[in-house]
Amino acid sequence: MGYKKATHVLPPELLLQVQEYIDGEFLYIPRISGQKRDWGTATSTRRELHDRNERIYAEYLGGETMDALAVKYFLSLKSIQRIVGQFKKERNQ
To answer: PANTHER family in the record, alphabetically (predicted)?
Structure first.
């Protein structure tokens, strides 16, 4: 999500109307429902997290303990358990 200067995108009369409700503050304008994008599609974050989670699962299968993985990846034990559980479920389907 990027920020745009209202004076660059809104006609002056509309900007004045908006300023009557909210003056000098940030305003989030949601996307039209048919144009919404899934989380992570605009950046590489989704792919990077999936790759990290695959590494975590591979290390777990290689004998690493969940506690050690939590420390190594700066995640809670519950997060490691969730990641391992998701990959086990995917692999067993």
So the answer is: MU-LIKE PROPHAGE FLUMU PROTEIN C
Nearest Cα neighbor of 57 from 82, 87, 77, 93 is 87
CA atoms within 13 A on the CB side of 9: 6
Write the DSSP assignment of 32-43 as a string of letters: PGGG---TTSSS
Position 18, amino acid: V
CA pair distance 41, 14, nearest whole angstrom: 32
pLDDT tens string 57-87: 999 999 999 999 999 999 999 999 999 999 9
Q: Are 48 and 81 in contact (CB under 8 A)?
A: no
Q: Where are the alpha helices (DSSP H) in 22-76?
A: 45-61, 66-72
pTM: 0.61
